[in-house]
Amino acid sequence: MSAQATDAEPLLSVEEVDVILGRGWRANQVLSGVGLKIWPGEIVGLVGETGSGKTTLARTVVGLITPRKGRVVFDGTETSRLRGGARRRERRSGHVQLVFQDPLRSLDPDLTVAQIVGEGLAIRGGIDSEEIRSRVEDALAKVGLDATVLHRQPGQISGGQRQRVSIARALASGPRLLLCDEPVSALDASNRNYILRLLSHVRDSLDLPIVIISHDLSSLAGIADRVVVLYRGRIVEDGPVSQVFSAPRHPYTALLMASAPSISTQGVKHDRPLSVHQLRRTAADPPPPSGPDACVFAARCPFAIDVCAAQPAREQVAAGWSAACHRHEEWAGLTRARTSSVVLT
Amino acid sequence: MAGNPPPDEVLGIEDLHVTVHDGAATAIRGVSLSVRTGEIVGLVGESGSGKTLTCRAALGVIPASCAISQGTISFGRQDVTDLSRRGWERLHGTGMGAVFQDPASYLNPNLTVGSQLAEVLRVKQRMPRRQAHRTSIELFTAVGLHGPERVFHQIPAELSGGMLQRVMIAIAISCGPRLLIADEATTALDVTIQAEIIELLRDLRDQRGLAVLFVSHDLAVIRELCDRVVVFYAGEVVESGSVEEIIERPSHPYTQALLRVASVGDYGRRELQVIPGQPPRVGAEITGCRFAARCPAAIAACRSGPVDLTMLAHGHDARCVRASDPELAAITAAAPADGLVAPDAELAVR
Fold this sequence. Notes:
The complex is a heterodimer of chains A (345) and B (350).
Chain A lengths: L11 E10 L6 E11 L4 E5 L6 H9 L6 E6 L2 E2 L5 H10 L2 E4 L3 H4 L6 H12 L4 H14 L16 H14 L4 E5 L7 H18 L3 E5 L11 E6 L2 E7 H6 L4 H9 L16 H4 L35 E4 L2 E3 L7 H11 L4
Parallel strand pairs in A: 3-8, 3-9, 6-7, 7-8
Antiparallel strand pairs in A: 1-2, 1-4, 4-5, 9-10, 10-12, 11-12
Helix pairs in contact in A: 4-5, 4-6, 5-6
Chain B lengths: L8 E12 L4 E12 L3 E5 L6 H9 L7 E9 L2 E2 L5 H7 L4 E4 L13 H12 L4 H14 L5 H5 L8 H13 L5 E5 L7 H18 L2 E6 L2 H7 L2 E6 L2 E7 H6 L4 H9 L38 H5 L5 E4 L2 E3 L9 H7 L16
Parallel strand pairs in B: 3-8, 3-9, 6-7, 7-8
Antiparallel strand pairs in B: 1-2, 1-4, 4-5, 9-10, 10-12, 11-12
């Protein structure tokens, strides 16, 4: 499905974005040189651990955070430079929508579902209440909710339903790009799969590109076309899901994959060639290079050597696939040697 | 309790019934389970299936509107079902420890984490200040916190979620309990941290012979950590057995469904499955199997009367009239993965 034809124009282009939150001694660089392109109709998984900058990147894309450096271009318009009335118009158009993390906290507990989903349309203006009502019902239908929830409040519906209300709120404005921040992390396995299938269905029926933020790679395997891995504010790997998951080029991606629990009963996890023990630093590993310019992952990387004292640039490893690792071609070959030295418990 | 508990049983729950809303409804119906020394037992089920309430009953901290209406809970050789508040206070910390999903909300944000651990040692173990400090550092080291001296003087806001969960575990094991209850202790953590906490719990079991009751809604996590698993559905135990047995030969249609929706970790493109329907409301009076309405293999016998837990193999029980039916697995596996039917859509009675 990935419309990765290099000649096609990306719908969204995030270019060399730096984000610094806070001022003075509190200043904290959350994103460093982030570049990301989203093409029409694709589902992109944005993965990384807590504090890696996933949410900040999403907030920057929708314009809630202004980047210190770099630019955000949506469909030819540099949205990160818009100010005042132009910015307000862009926001009210509802072209880019973000589904916030934790629907219980992001939905107003005093409003009904109908009010929550219709609020954005009412603020936009120029739409009569009849039209708003039909659009609200339409948006709810897209997420599999019927009119019975219309007059309930967020506290009166289940967690899975709340998440779907959040998605319906985003869909009501007719977005052209949807970003979902951890849409499934608070849900049980069945509801998680349902939401993911729903998003996949929304993409198919509306041809809507979707960015799904998650800390769990395995939940994306079923639906994403492309995966982007963030580590401490930098994109360390970006490529087609099937290729990245079969042979990750960054050791952090491999660590994320190996860490996910598996239901597989085989003693050897044949579908996961590497174990976490092969990908974690041990006391036997030489101390990693440190310093402000060192690779962000060096401190946790068992394969770090002297060249890693300089932050690696993101290099293309194959068509539409890039990784930021000096040793992206070598490290996988070194993991085998690590098996014998580590006693598995 | 019938007969004497086996000598190494740490926690024994026998035919537990718990009512909620001041007795208006029964949320837990006849749950029995046991945890032995050095054993990690997993409780799995959807939200609202009674896992957490069972844990809270075992800890003697059920909410005020709930009550144990039937059954017994024993800790070691002691019957603790009607234990006084003072009695529970003596058990907490020294007998059993607990860790929950959101570590930050269980720690005082204004005090250093070290002082909160030392306080427990000073109150429960009557340790002098110096010794409590020394022991705290040892415990922080034991749970794998780097730079324990520094961590001691940090407040919760300065620590990450994974570090806070390690602090909670240090507090929970500080007074040498025999049982650790971990309720969704890894759910809110990153996968890399989750893998580390799972290893830590396994190490604590190996080194200290700790018995662990581990609650999770994810069978894959249970599979990584536990020896035995107890599957909850709508306040009942529907299946229990060793992890290998349950994963290789799930005999209740609900367990089979849980396995199909679990994160398989195979990273291939696959059909994401959903369990259609939703669990019955708490207190719903249902004749027969409580899962029948969602079960693709339900037959008339499922609804005619109560279904008992029956033993299928040594240590493997299931509450299903068709548990021994060789065709059961094929029927549930072939159930249509209903396109995009919402999990809460009304299901026609099959």
